[in-house]
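Two proteins, back to back. First:
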Amino acid sequence: MMMEDWKDCANNDIEMCKAESKAKISDYIVNATVSLHTVAVFFYCISFVINADIIDPTIETPHISKMKFPFDVKIQNMYKFVLITEMIHLLVVSWGLGILNVLLLTLALDTPDATQKIMKSLMFYVVTNLEMFIYCYSGEYLINKSKAVGYAAYDVAWYNMKPKHIRILVIIILRSQKELTFTIGKMMDLSLRRFASIMNSAGSFISVLLAMQ
């Protein structure tokens, strides 16, 4: 398909200029998307890698991706290796999704006036995403604070407390395992992970709709 387009433009300077312009725009979009995905994954994961110190083996270690391992990961070197592997995995997945979205968007640019339509809806898209990000960030903040209650209760010197106070502490820890969250009509939780999922789906839908016009 691309070869046929270039052959059609070979004998027409105007069409050749248009094709070259679209090729440059596609190249800019690819570079920008891959760069943004790389920066986003790096800043999300770097705090896990930097703070990868196991102080107390009895405390659950945080991971970039929730998963179970058939081996002990609470050894310092093994824990760092697992975190770096999770970071690389997330980076590769992010690149794959980004390139897929770029491919759909590049195909959409071949439709008439696609660039103008995208620019017109860009501001609305940014404002809508910002509003969704605020809700999702608030939900993520509430989830983290809810987890912090359980961690704080776990770190209390319970062995110096009275039995009735220990029982109350156990209830607090059990309750904190069910995190407080903001929900969308009781159907799904609002969090940064949900925001990333919504952004990925929205970009794919927009690209498909533009390509179908």
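And the second protein:
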Amino acid sequence: MEAGDQTDSMLQDRRMQKFLDVLSRWEGGDLSMMEAGELLGMSERQFRRYRDRYEEAGEVGLLDRRLGKISTRRVPAEAIEEMLELYRHRYLGWNVKHFHEHLLRDHDFSWGYTFIKTQLHAAGLVGRAKRRGAHRRKRERQPCEGMLLHQDGSRYAWLEGQPMLDLIVTMDDATSTLYSAFLIEEEGTASSFQGLLETLVAKGLPSSFYTDRGSHFS
């Protein structure tokens, strides 16, 4: 694979994982649909369309128009049926979180939690929890580049045949410009500082910094 193709593939996977993370938070009631769209850099209506495509066809239903590609992580129907049979005959009654953990650990599945939950819902094997009302106020994006850095980490099987790794991304809040991105075995204080250092060397000091991983700095 050419270097450019590898970069495109990693960015494609990064966007996919970010969408799944935000979708899971929306389903849990932590985000409104408007807030979910904002985090993904899209409108509320577009987020709703992506959600519907994902529920209908999984990752293959999400077409990235910027890259002009469909995700290469196409899930065969036979594999989905195998997963459903496992749940019916060995894990019936388990909650999705524990079932997903056992799929990853004991059965060599690498699918995301939200995809598993969607398939179980579609098969009528688990019920849909009632969404809690969203209480957060919408956070407006900063108006100018350099006013706020946003750092995030996503754990996923980014490299085929390799164990799960954390992708650490540092970007500008106003423009979503990517300043730093790298894979590491486990996210922590050192990785957060590495992303910050790479950004500061290249772009200088921002006005403010935001991360969901505040415990790293405690």
